[in-house]
Structure formats: structure tokens, C-alpha cells
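This entry is listed below:
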Amino acid sequence: MPKRKRVQREHTEDWKTIQQYKLWPEQTAYELLRPVVLFGDPAIQRAKETGEPRPTLERKADAFDEQGMVSLFASRPRKQPQETARSLPPDMRQLIVDLRVELPTMSLREIAEICEARFQRRPSHNSVKMVLASGPPPSINTRRYQTWDQIPDPAERRHAVVQLHAEGWSITSIAEYLATSRQTVYTTLKRWVKEGVRGLDDKSRARKAPRVVTMEIANEIRKKQENPLIGEWRMHAALLQEGIKVSPRTCGRIMAKHRALYGWDKQKAPPKPKKEMPFKASRRHEYWSIDIRYIEHHQLPNIKGPVYVISVLENFSRMLLASAISERQDTAAYLWVLAKALRNYGAPEAIVTDSGGVFYSKRAMAIYEALDIRKERIDPRQSWQNYIEAHFGIMRRLADYYLNKASTLDEMKKAHRKFIRDYNCQIHFAHRERQDGRHSPQDVLRGVLARTLEASTLARIFFATEFIRHLDRSGYIRFRRWRFYAEEGLASQQVQVSIYTSTLKIEYQETELAFYTMEWAEDNKHIKEVKNPRLIETGYQSPHLKLWTLGPDEWLLFLKLPDYTARKKPQRKPDVIQLPLLDPDENQREPRLIMR
């Protein structure tokens, strides 16, 4: 090979020119440090010439002073030998090929895990793939273990599972290889961990406790079974009366054996005539069903008794028109829900309820009469006649879990609103056979309204008066020379004040804030006395932290304001004589007296 001809160049110290002539990285590193380590030039000057950081030059110069030319080669990374399929041990290569023969569906990564469990070295899945493509021939031609059903010895079956799992096989691969279920593999491994070798053998499933039903008890059941109308529960009760304790299910099982042995037919109960719903609607808004449901198992610490759900259901479509979570079940709470339904959907032809007092209060009956609504009542102890009882059953299954889990009243109301949306939009069992494709209550009602009522008419019928007030910065309103507290967190917001009978209610966007019981003066215009304040816990709490917390009895929820000062009567001013504008002459009249 001919020698490389050297090119003679002009000596220079210009760094850019030197960079053009470099051959090796080590040569560049040396030329970078040469003026510093050979002539003692400042590192900061060399940094300006080359653009390298000054600390880097100083560090490399110190390393050159200590190690010499070796420091220029120390930073050069050494290439690691790359693993290849031929670099794996022969035993591992043979194992990889044999595993693929035993279970062709085994993944490459699982084969690598088995190699790691045996050789403490995990090959890459690419290496496994290369070995399978160009590896040695397999050393086995048959299976090591037969399938689960073909192994006669139960202990040998379970030993195969334990052995394969110890080799690193996964549960899925073991189940596929032995043609059994994954649950069987799990059970075998659990018994091995818990009992060891003793867990490999089968366990006797023979009854260890004495049988409850002896021949004497079975014979006694046969004697009583001569009555074909007796059932398993009545049989259980009859035996218990004689001191024989047998469960109803066991009685039913023994009675079924006797019927099969002696050829007895099971007596069927006489068919009961299907009861017709007395308040089944044939058109929309013909009947509304109303009732109150109790939620006793709640997590609200501030409410000792149950929480009530007041609901209004439309019988034809089964749509929930109005529903509310309430802390009480008085007439005011019921009328609030009824007014919401009437305001949104109009007045129905009839309302169906039970004999609850709130549904037949004087105030409620007067409203029915004023709106020309017929009042219907279900028969005593016949709750099935009210459609809303079936609706409450749906509520128990869909919403009770979330209602009972709520820790605040706001969370409970939020869960209740979600239930209303879901119930009205989901398909209903009563509409499953409709041919028009409308299977949910909302689709069946289709937004049809009943006899509509004006808002002023409802306000006049339900409430004596309704007022709009604004809360001050402390959360109070001024009404009839009284101050009433509502909610500090809604300062400066507009609230609605409703008065009916002797109750004053303050609400904000259909959310109740406070209730007060009032006593009117003789003129029925002025408030004489206020008592029984009730504040409702809402999510509109003030974001500001309080220095201390006061109880309801430690601060004033209501306060009577002083009466207006009587106006003073204007004083009568004395008479004033109008002076003449011009000089009087003999023909001028006398000055006139003017009264002001």
C-alpha cells in the first residue's frame, strides 16, 4: 500500500484553521489545551479564542497535568460487545428451542423469563427470536406431561403444575399446556403453598357432620305431605312445632324427592284473578300519583330522623314530574313540590294519594278545589293501587346506594337529581311492548302539557304573597320591619320570600335557605312575633374563614327593627302682605292679603 503523501501547510495558531486540519478527536482535544499546558496561557483567553467554556478547559488542563496524554483518551467511550444469538450459552439455546416445541403459543418474552429463572440471565426477545429461527434442532419429540385428564394419579397432576410453575411458566401457559382451567392451576398452587406435599393428594368430600334429615324425619315429612296444599315453609313450621329443626329449603328438597318417588303431583294454587289498577291512565295527565318515601339509613350527622323524598309521578308515561329531598314532611314541603309540578306541566284531572294528613290538609284541599283537580284516594292497606309505589322500588335499586352514602345534604340532593335524569331517560318496563319506539317515560310524555295555569294564578292560590328581596353583606333581608337571616355566602344576591299561613320561607333559585314561623298582628299585615327559625344546610357557604363558630342560640337569626318615626305636621306660616310694585296713587286699590 503506498504511503500517504503529507501536505505541507503554513504554521498558524488560528483555531478555526487548526480545526480544518484535525484527524482524530484526541488531536483536537490536545490542540485545544496546548497553549494552556505548554505555554501557560490563561484559560479564559483560550476560551475566548475557541468558544469552549473556561471551567471545561481548566478541568481538562488539570487532568492533563496529572495523567498526561492518557487523559485525552479516557473520555472516549468503549463499545460494549453486542449480544447475539450465538453469544448465548448452548444450554440456553437448546432450552429456547425445546420450549417452543412443547408449547408453540408461548410468547418470546415468557421464554426469556423461563431462561432467566433457570440460568439467571435474561436474553432479549430479539435474541430468542433469532435462536428460534437459526438455532439447534429440538432435543425432545414428545410432551413431558400429558394433559390433566390423561394423568391418572391426582398427585402427579398437581405435581406437574407445581414443577412447571417453578420453572417459570405462567398460569395461562400451564393451563393451556395441561388442557385445564386457570382456576384449577390457581387452586393447586394455593394448596401447595398452604399444605406442601400433603396438598397434592385428593381430599375426601364425604360429609363429616351427621345428616340433619334422618329416616324418621323424612318419614314424618312424608306423612305431612299427604296434604297436597302444604308447602315447604308450612312444612318447616309444622316440624319446628314438634321440636324438629329443618330449614325450609331442606323440606322442599325432601318433598320433591317424595313426589318423584311416589308419583305425586305438586298441587298448584288456584289461579288468582288479576287485579286491575283502579287508577290506570288512558291519556296523559289523567292521574298524578303522589307519595312520600322515608330514607332512614343516611349519613347526615345534622339530621337525626329520616330524610324524606316527596315525588309526583304521571301515571300514563310513568315520568317523574317533580321530586325533592326534604328534612320534613309537612304541608309546606308537599305544597312546594306540587307547585313545582303544576308550574312546569299544568294541572291534571285527578291526584291519587293515600290517606296521609298532608294530602288532606285544609290548605291542600283548598288548592285542589281552586284548581278544579279531583282528589282520589287508594283503599286502606292497598299500596299497590298507587303507581308511585312501583317507582319507589326502582329508586331503591338505582339511587339508595348513593343516597345512603352521601355525607351532606347537598351531595344527597345531587345524587337525587342524577337519579331523576336517569330514570326519565332510561327505558321503562311498562313501555317495553310499545311499537312506536318510545320506551322511556320522557319519550312517552313527549312534553305534552296538561291544563296550563298562569304564574300569577298559582302564586295567588299557593301563597298569600311572594316578594323579591336582596341579601345584605351579612346575609340578612329586611321584611316588614324585621331582619331575617338567610345565607351569608349569598351576599347581595336576589332571593324569593314566600308567605303562606304562618310560615315565611326564603329560597334562592329553588333552593330553600331558611324557614321562620310568624304570628301576625290583628291587622294581618304586621308581624307580631317570630319563632322556630330553621336554617337549611346548602352549598352556598361563605368562603371566608370565621374567627369562631356560634350556635343557633348564640346569635340573632331574626331581629325586630324599630318603627318609623312619626312625621311632624307642617307648621302654619303667618299671613304675608304683598307690597306694591309701583308707587301708589289715588286710584290704586288697597294691598291684598295672600294666604300661603
The domain at 287-445 is CATH 3.30.420.10 (Nucleotidyltransferase; domain 5). The chain has six domains: 15-74, 79-141, 143-202, 215-262, 287-445, 463-543+554-560.
